[in-house]
Write a sequence for this structure.
């Protein structure tokens, strides 16, 4: 059957020319009369004219008048006034949408002072470590230097840096002479904070048996190694050295985990991959410290004078006996090209301070809560570890080689710290001594004696050491001379944790109290109560003290006044608090109840930072041993289904 195609529609008629000629102003004689009316009479005349129009004519008027009323108010105003108006917007998403309106608005919203104000409003300027880290990663590592701006600081000077300020209006974008990219910094920090508040990216999960099965003598290659002298006469079953995490250190590149089975695992903080397993200790590892690569040597700072006997300037005959690769790793090879080593500046100008003044800590730089320390310019990251075999070992992270084995302690090494920018490691032991080591040349420098029982905890800041002991006292030492400056007495039970920021010392222990001391004279400033069990976690910030106890409580105290009042008491966990770390924005806690919780600080009506619970950072487990984080990475050590589990999370934009 033939298919009849549908009829083809006729072509559209061409536009018809109006039969009326285009009128001119001379045609309408009432135009001149309308121009001579008063404003009120003109409005009355227009209103009467509109009343006589048909709907089609009103539509014509609407489509004709609407484009005439559209006006770019920001372009009509002076740029200084436009930027002042935009500075009242506190939502960055509104600014991002405004940048899509036009090219002029896009260039206007690139003004750095606008984003500097936004960063201050959102609290990103208070995180000095974030500012320094961004400057180091984005500006100092391979970025060309930026020319200085002769204009003085201030809103007008900052605004005139924009290419919008020219007689011709909008110009092609050109590099702005600013010292710090506030816009890029704000975007980076905003996305990073959003990742923390939302859910980060799980880089890797590692699982290992807590109790490996005993070797089968009937299987070839499965014979157990001979027992060492320390292990003879002890139980050699699988329960003797379980793979329980005992210590952890973390920086931007590495995560180091010490285990009770004498192993040390090194994970990449950027990918989560297990990079190295360090084998050499004969017994459990109880303390690890991570020394980041690069850094600025403090002893060579022109603003500071190296003390006599400083390992940075002293030489030793055994330096030449070290292999070349290991000499290079610890920074002893003089032929190493220093330009290839990423030097981390000790003190950089604060871009959010008035005039960009340099921030130099008065009493030195406090230790990082994650267990890492700044290097002294060496090209490789190093790990220092100690434990039940009474030995201190120095490892090269890149090769996994043990550079030095340092002997001197006569009992278990219980705590360990490394001074920022100097190759000085400080260890505390159950032999009641504190020892200072040169980890660059592998030698013992000083033995600090005075405690009458085991040294349980340490903290360092600049050239000062604070040690806490089971003899119920804390001691302040000079790392360069070994002198005991002050003995802090007041606790009536064993001390388990100390924190030191250069000005104040906080100590907590089995008597359930926390004491705050003046580091300059050793006086007790405050006795803080609130816990009902052992105080096992402490951290100091310039304005706050956070404590965690075996009762599951986390208490924050304000240090701004002289009263040291408790700001908040959090029932964070159902069991002992096993980990606690905070910064300017977040508080992370872990407990033996198997949970890791994230809190965010919000400024209260009185100016104190109040904690707001945000979320659980990972799935619940049987128990959480350790948690530590940097700005962009968090590591959680937990127990799940009888296995040791390592979770590494990334919050990097």
């Amino acid at each position: 059957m033939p298919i009849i195609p549908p009829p083809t529609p006729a072509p559209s008629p061409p536009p018809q020319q109006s039969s009326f000629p285009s009128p001119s102003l001379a045609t309408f004689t009432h135009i001149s009369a309308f121009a001579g009316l008063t404003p009120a009479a003109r409005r009355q005349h227009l209103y009467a004219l509109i009343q006589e129009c048909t709907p089609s004519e009103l539509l014509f008027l609407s489509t004709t008048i609407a484009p005439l009323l559209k006006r770019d108010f920001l372009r009509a105003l002076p740029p200084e006034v436009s930027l002042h108006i935009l500075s009242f917007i506190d939502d960055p998403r509104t600014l991002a949408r405004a940048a899509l309106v036009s090219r002029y608005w896009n260039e206007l919203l690139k003004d750095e002072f606008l984003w500097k104000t936004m960063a201050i409003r959102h609290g990103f300027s208070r995180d000095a470590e974030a500012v320094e880290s961004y400057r180091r990663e984005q500006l100092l590592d391979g970025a060309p230097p930026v020319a200085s701006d002769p204009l003085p600081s201030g809103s007008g000077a900052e605004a005139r840096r924009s290419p919008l300020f020219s007689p011709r209006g909008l110009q092609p974008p050109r590099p702005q002479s600013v010292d710090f990219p506030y816009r890029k910094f704000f975007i980076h920090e905003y996305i990073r904070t959003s990742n923390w508040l939302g859910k980060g990216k799980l880089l890797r999960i590692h699982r290992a048996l807590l109790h490996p099965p005993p070797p089968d003598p009937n299987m070839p290659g499965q014979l157990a190694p001979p027992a060492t002298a320390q292990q003879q006469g002890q139980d050699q079953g699988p329960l003797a050295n379980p793979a329980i995490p005992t210590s952890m250190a973390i920086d931007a590149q590495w995560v180091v985990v010490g285990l009770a089975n004498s192993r040390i695992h090194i994970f990449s903080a950027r990918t989560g991959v297990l990079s190295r397993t360090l084998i050499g200790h004969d017994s459990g590892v109880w303390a690890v410290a991570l020394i980041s690569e690069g850094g600025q040597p403090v002893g060579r700072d022109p603003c500071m004078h190296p003390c006599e006997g400083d390992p940075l300037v002293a030489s030793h005959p055994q330096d030449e006996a070290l292999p070349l690769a290991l000499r290079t790793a610890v920074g002893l090879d003089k032929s190493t090209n220093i330009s290839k080593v990423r030097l981390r500046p000790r003190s950089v100008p604060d871009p959010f301070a008035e005039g960009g003044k340099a921030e130099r800590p008065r009493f030195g730089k406090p230790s990082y809560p994650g267990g890492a320390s700044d290097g002294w310019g060496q090209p490789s990251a190093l790990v220092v570890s100690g434990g039940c075999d009474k030995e201190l070992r120095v490892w090269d992270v890149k090769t996994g080689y043990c550079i030095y084995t340092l002997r001197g302690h006569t009992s278990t090494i219980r705590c360990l710290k490394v001074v920022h920018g100097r190759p000085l490691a400080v260890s505390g032991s159950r032999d009641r001594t504190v020892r200072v080591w040169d980890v660059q040349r592998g030698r013992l420098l000083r033995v600090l004696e005075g405690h009458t029982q085991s040294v349980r905890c340490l903290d360092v800041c600049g050239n000062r050491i604070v040690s806490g002991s089971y003899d119920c006292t804390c001691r302040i030492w000079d790392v360069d001379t070994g002198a005991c400056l002050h003995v802090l007495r007041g606790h009536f039970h064993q001390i388990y944790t100390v924190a030191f920021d250069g000005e104040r010392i906080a100590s907590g222990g089995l008597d359930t109290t926390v004491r705050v001391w003046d580091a300059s004279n050793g006086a007790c400033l405050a006795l803080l109560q609130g816990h009902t069990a052992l105080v096992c976690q402490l951290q100091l910030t310039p304005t706050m003290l956070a404590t965690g106890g075996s009762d599951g409580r986390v208490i924050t105290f304000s240090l701004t006044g002289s009263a040291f009042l408790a700001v908040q008491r959090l029932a964070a966990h159902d069991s002992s608090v096993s980990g606690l770390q905070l910064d300017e924005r977040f508080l992370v806690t872990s407990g033996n109840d198997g949970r890791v919780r994230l809190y965010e600080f919000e400024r209260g009506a009185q100016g104190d930072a109040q904690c707001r619970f945000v979320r659980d950072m990972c799935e619940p487990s049987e128990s959480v041993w350790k948690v530590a984080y940097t700005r962009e990475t968090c590591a959680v050590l937990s127990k799940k289904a009888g296995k040791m589990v390592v979770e590494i999370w990334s919050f990097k934009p």
About this structure: The chain has a mean pLDDT of 81. Residues 191 and 229 are 54 Å apart (CA to CA).
